[in-house]
Amino acid sequence: MKAIMGLETEYGALLTGEMQGMRDLFRQEEMFQKVRDHLFFSQRMGVIDQHQRAYDEPPGNGGFLLNGGRLYIDMGHVEYATPECHDLLDLVRADRAGDALLQCAVDEMGLSNEISFIKNNIDHQTLATFGSHENYLVARDFPFTERGMEPLVAFLVTRQIFTGSGRIGAAYVNDSLIAIDSEQPPVTFQISQRADYIVNKFYQWVQMNRSIVNTRDEPLADPVQYRRMHLLLGDSNMSEFATALKFGTTKIVMDLVSEGLAPSVGVMDPVRTCRGLSHDMSMTWKLQDAEGKILTAVEVQWQFLEAASRAYSGTGEDVDWVLREWEALLVDLGKKDPALVSDRLDWAAKYLMIDRFRKEEKLEWTDPWLESLDLEYHNIDPAKGLFLILEEEGRHRRLVPPSALGSGRECPPAMTRAEGRSIAVRKLLEKPGLSYIIQWFGVQVNQSDVLYMLDPLKTYRSEVEEYFRGIEEV
Amino acid sequence: MHKEQTWKATWSPDRQPIPGSPKKDVQKDGPVPKRPDSGKGPDRLMDRMRKVDPNQSERYRQRTGE
User: Fold this and answer.
1) Where are the domains of chain A?
2) What ipTM does the predicted assembly reach?
3) Gap between the Cα atoms of A277 and A156, Å rounded
4) B57 touches chain A (CB under 8 A)
5) Nearest by CB: A207 against B53, B61, B66
6) pTM for this one?
7) CB distance A386–B45 less than 8 Å?
8) pLDDT, tens digit, 9 for 90 and up, residues A26-67
């Protein structure tokens, strides 16, 4: 698969000890700063920003990492953005590197009894949600119109049957742009964390009125050649398999749309459908297509898989892996038994473990203990996290062995401009005292000319080396 | 024809793997895992679940992000 993909994760933070109201907000912020400073100043895993990146990103708020990714504090969360990744294994490795960086900092500073980072997207007490943002590089001539993206919307609304992370309960977002179903039965468990918060089909905002397809045009690359597709509707996956399949299938479908090969399928009222599918634990997942015909989400996914197989089968190792696993998964999902997919999908793994616990402890679905277990599924601390036990014991599929995960903290993905950025970060760490600005698309040192890196598909290794030679000569 | 166009659109001449690329160490198709209920011996998962503070979700109050 010839792609550039990236994933941004906003981590939740669970503080231990007695609740202290507003004081907890300050405590949390202090913890975030300690973790960030430990990574940048003690561990020297990256270089901290010296310039004001945006009005809410002052100097010192975060920085770029040795692996080419970025870590910073944003809107009350520690956020980690993977470097640009060229294939699915690199993406999984880079995603897990974010978890490893944060957990190592917590462990090394002896803070594990005070804070846990939770890789999820909701809390159960308020309507807060926070993101998992997917980024895909596409050509500038991608059919970025309502009509052109109709099939993409149909795919995205239905892919949650394998990308959802599952959650206890539901959130009824008080948003004036949508009508709220007050007659629906109570939701005890649903397959997606974010579905309840998606209230538009297309929109450009990222913090309110979230949409199925975000329309912000910020390519962070040559805008003449490229567009960056920015998706906010996905969940943070703990499962490496779900992460890889989410990105793999979505990139393939974007290729189908781009080349006019996607099935001509649309979904009627996609926002309501998105929510309805997520709430349907019977796994029937019925919907109406754009003409009003009743289909299931699995059938819609089959349409995309068949089109993808016709167009791309045999074109690459990643593509073939995606097509094979996508098919196997749809076959299993069609049997309507979560146990058949719990070795690959977060929502099914979480549902089964909580349901079993609930029965053993004789708890109702509304018991708040289950919400706490829902959170602990996403705890990135191997000593606490519930998902990580499944993985450790071989009950959930890994794609990258633990021995290869560690390198993701310092080593950039191959064959993208993250390589050049990584070299720049390393050189800046070796020569303290230089002034610099690093952006996703370029580097500037000592106020000399900017080295633009506008093509994410180039490594810029030799250009960066040469640029720094020039700086040294000056 | 479409496949060729995709390749051309994304190919860049300097895209060569860096030496020691970690991809060489990894294999996507590992052994098929056990089902969640097939573990033998002490059930670490259930033990860990029982140790979770039942009221902890009350403490988990986050700010809305993006």
Assistant:
1) 143-201+239-369, 419-473
2) 0.91
3) 12
4) yes
5) B66
6) 0.93
7) yes
8) 999 999 999 999 999 999 999 999 999 988 899 999 999 999
